[in-house]
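Quick one, C-alpha cells below. Sequence please?
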C-alpha cells in the first residue's frame, strides 16, 4: 500500500500499469473509512487488477455552515484499512493540489436534479461532488468506479453524468452496509452521542416498516411517507425530508403507487446536530 499525494505521481504510477493492460478500479471517499467504504474497496479488488482509493475531503461540496472543519481525519489508519482489504494505492491530494487556483471556475452540474432532495438543503453540494468526481476520473483514467447506494441521489447523478458526458468508465453501485442494529454506516455517525445513536435507528426501522406495509398491500404514497416520518419524530429526530421517488428518474410519486412503479424512499433527518441520510428500495 502506497500513499500518493500528487496528481502527477498518481498518473506516472498508473501509466505503465495501464499500458500493460491492467484494469484500474477507483473508490472515491472523503476518508474516516469504515466497513461501508470497505464493501466498495472489496468489490474493486475483486473486479480490477489495481485498486486506487481516493481520500479527499472536498471543500467545494460543503456549505459554509456545514461540518468541513470537524469532519474526522485519519489518513494513516485509512491507508492501513484500505491496504488490509487489498487496495494498492491511496490517493490523498491536498486541497491546493486539487484546486491550485482556489474554487474552480469550471464545474460540472446537473441543473435539473441538483436542487432536489439533499440538493435543496445543501446548495452547491452536487456540483461540488460532480466536479471532484470528474477530476478523479480524468486523473486516474480508471476503468471502474465504485459508489455506495447510501448516497442514492449522488450515485444516480454520477451515473447520469457518465452517460451524458461519455466518460469511459463503468460505475458500480454497492448496497448500503448497516451495523448490526440497522443503522447505515457513515463517517458522521461518530458525531452521535450514545442516546442519539439509539434514537437514530428510527430511520432504518421506519424505512423497513414502510417497506413491510408496502409489501402487505399499502400503496398510498402519503400513508407510506407518514410511517417513516412518524418513526423519526417519535424518536425526537428532526425530519429534513422523506420522499417516495422513482428509481429511474428521481421524480416524486404522489397518490397511489402502481404495481410497476420502481420505488425508492429517500430520507434525511437530524438527530441532535448530526444530519443522517438513508434510503430503501421497495422492489
Ligand atoms: P464518503 O466518504 O462518505 O464520501 O463515502 C464514499 C463512498 O462510500 C460513497 O460512494 C458512499 O456512498 C460510500 N458509502 C458510505 N457509507 C456507506 C455505507 N454505509 N454503505 C455503502 N456505501 C457507503
Amino acid at each position: 500500500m502506497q500513499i500518493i499525494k500528487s496528481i502527477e505521481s498518481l498518473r506516472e504510477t498508473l501509466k505503465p500499469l495501464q499500458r500493460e493492460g491492467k484494469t484500474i478500479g477507483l473508490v472515491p471517499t472523503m476518508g474516516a473509512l469504515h466497513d461501508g467504504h470497505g464493501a466498495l474497496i472489496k468489490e474493486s479488488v475483486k473486479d480490477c487488477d489495481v485498486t486506487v482509493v481516493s481520500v479527499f475531503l472536498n471543500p467545494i461540496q460543503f456549505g459554509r455552515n456545514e461540518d468541513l472543519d470537524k469532519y474526522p481525519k485519519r489518513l494513516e489508519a485509512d491507508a492501513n484499512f484500505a491496504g488490509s482489504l487489498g487496495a494498492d494505492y491511496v490517493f490523498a491530494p491536498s486541497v491546493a493540489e486539487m484546486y491550485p487556483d482556489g474554487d474552480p471556475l469550471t464545474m460540472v452540474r446537473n441543473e435539473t436534479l441538483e436542487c432536489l432532495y439533499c440538493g435543496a438543503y445543501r446548495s452547491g453540494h452536487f456540483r461540488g461532488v460532480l466536479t471532484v468526481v470528474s477530476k478523479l476520473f480524468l486523473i486516474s483514467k480508471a476503468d471502474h468506479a465504485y459508489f455506495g447506494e447510501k448516497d442514492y441521489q449522488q450515485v444516480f447523478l454520477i451515473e447520469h453524468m457518465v452517460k451524458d458526458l461519455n466518460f469511459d468508465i463503468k460505475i458500480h453501485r454497492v448496497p448500503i452496509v448497516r451495523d448490526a442494529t440497522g443503522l447505515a454506516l457513515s463517517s458522521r455517525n461518530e458525531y452521535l452521542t450514545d442516546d442519539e445513536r439509539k434514537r437514530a435507528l428510527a430511520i432504518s426501522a421506519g424505512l423497513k416498516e414502510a417497506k413491510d406495509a408496502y409489501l402487505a398491500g399499502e400503496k398510498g404514497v402519503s400513508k407510506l411517507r407518514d410511517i417513516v416520518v412518524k418513526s423519526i419524530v417519535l424518536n425526537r429526530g428532526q425530519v429534513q425530508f422523506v420522499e417516495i421517488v422513482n428509481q429511474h428518474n428521481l421524480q416524486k410519486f404522489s397518490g397511489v403507487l402502481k404495481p410497476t412503479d420502481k420505488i425508492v424512499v429517500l430520507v434525511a433527518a437530524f438527530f441532535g446536530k448530526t444530519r443522517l441520510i438513508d434510503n430503501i428500495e421497495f422492489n
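The beta strands are 2-4, 24-29, 50-55, 89-91, 144-148, 170-174, 238-246, 263-271, 274-281. Residues 29-30, 36-37, 39-40, 147-148, 150-151, 174, 176-177, 184-187 surround adenosine monophosphate (CB under 6 Å).
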